[in-house]
């Protein structure tokens, strides 16, 4: 009986993400990532790098740099999920040329991410994803050498 009670108390006192090997970076909240220890942060950074291997910028980065990027993204977007924060952070460097070269599905995904990252803008926040995507495309047509985020603000 003492063993069962001790085991139950140990489980209750364990941190929420003590074993991040089974933690899904898509589901983990930034606030939880930011309170994790450096080993757990590195594990989540590895998961982010793996999940975003199709992103040229992320795949070219070393895992410790992806962890630093994840930390910066979660610091900027603390109320987001880890992957959402990283995608929004990466979106800030997306160029208009790169966005205009995307297929329709890629442009819609970019538009959705832009929408999420600009929710604090009253005009953009009230728009539908498709309208934000069209607005970004129009802004990029007018300012093809800018980043998408800069073009949207011009």
Q: Layout of helices and strands, plus pairs?
A:
Elements: H1 2-13, H2 30-34, H3 38-51, H4 56-60, H5 63-76, H6 82-91, H7 96-100, H8 104-117, H9 122-125, H10 129-142, H11 148-153
Helix pairs in contact: 3-5, 5-6, 6-8, 8-10
Describe this structure in words.
This protein has helices at residues 2-13, 30-34, 38-51, 56-60, 63-76, 82-91, 96-100, 104-117, 122-125, 129-142, 148-153. By secondary structure, the protein is mainly α. The longest helix is centred in the N-terminal third of the chain and has 14 residues, at 38-51. It is globular and about 45 Å long. It starts with a helix and ends with a helix. Mean pLDDT is 78; it is low at 1-21.
Compact overview of the structure:
By secondary structure, the chain is an all-alpha fold.
